[in-house]
Amino acid sequence: MRALICKAYGDPSQLVYTEVPSPTLQAEEVRIAVHAIGLNYADGIQVSGRSQLPLPFSPGFECSGTVIECGSEVQALQPGDRVLAIMTSGAYAEEVVVPAAHVALLPSNMDMPAAAAFPVAYVTAHLALVHRGQLKPGEVLVVSGATGSVGSAALEIATRWGATVVAVTGRPEHLPAKLAAVFNPRQDDLAKRLLEQTSGRGVDLVFDTIGGGFFDPAWAALAWEGRYLTVGFASGQIPQLGLRQALGKNGAVIGFELGGYLTRRHALVPEALRTLLSWYEGGVLTPRALQAAPLSDGGGMLQRLVNHQIQEKIVLIARE
């Protein structure tokens, strides 16, 4: 089989498209013929070496395809099933082997490209909001990076959950009209507008995928006993919080990183996937529009994503 391989840490453009051995199948795993792979900013973090994956490796967290072989202990899946999978690495390949617990059957109305782009964004948003952020119906939530993959998933999930949702993005024209408010950080005094939106009380929960300059005004607008949920630093800048700031608001800073739930809390990811796919099947969720490229072009496409030259969600096509 062929795969995109990272042989040295650095830029994604250095990924090599080459022949590699097929992975070995264990008893609790399934082998999937990959159709499509979702690109994520975190893939670039893997390639940079910050995730400390041993070389060589194939990056990537999500894919869709067809089951071609099941381990001896797998009962819920069988060859021929259309599935999506979420993993800690290795998705940039024509074939993957994944624990069956991290594989889900596709709804009949979900195609392979949509499935490949689904699990990372939606599982991240769901577990971060519901499990870590403890979002409650009626609470005021503000989402940064609201037109990104994870941010837009958070908007849909929080709306479904009954929250009052405020979006922050530099591209407000790409957002639905049903949100409580949309603010542009390039034009709005964000802290002032958020406090006005909440009649001075402040926001209950912040869902931050950006970091950088978003942090200070968002924290200033956080309600007493509010929660600040940090999900990523797409700006490339990691904010600093003094403990005195947290003390003054009785505020909580909550971290979320998806990979830990794949290796430590094994039941949460399958539960979230079942819920989210049922919502998709029922028409509750409408993922972002996609762009597609061949798997062989994955290094260049990931480089453009890391360089913020691509706004759309990208999927790599391994086979038709």
Structural class, from secondary structure content? alpha/beta
Largest sheet data: 7 strands, mixed
**Number of helices, where a helix is a run of at least 4 consecutive DSSP H or I residues:** 10
* Share in helix: 25-40%
What shape does the CA trace take?
globular
Mean pLDDT: 93
Approximate strand percentage: 25-35%
Low-confidence stretches: none
Kindly state the number of beta strands.
15
Order of helices and strands: EEEHEEEEHHEHEEHEHEHEHHEHE
Kindly provide the radius of gyration, computed on alpha-carbon positions and rounded to a whole number of angstroms: 20 Å
State the distance separating the first and last CA atoms: 15 Å
3D architecture notes:
The protein contains ten helices and 15 strands. The protein is globular. Helix 3 (119-132) crosses helix 4 (149-161) and helix 3 (119-132) packs across helix 9. The model has no long low-confidence stretch (mean pLDDT 93). Strand 12, helix 7 and strand 13 form a beta-alpha-beta unit. It is of the alpha/beta class and 320 residues long. The strands form three sheets. Strands 3, 4, 5, 6, 7, 14 and 15 form a seven-stranded mixed beta sheet that branches. A six-stranded parallel beta sheet has the order 10-9-8-11-12-13, with helices on both faces. Strands 1-2 form a two-stranded antiparallel ribbon.
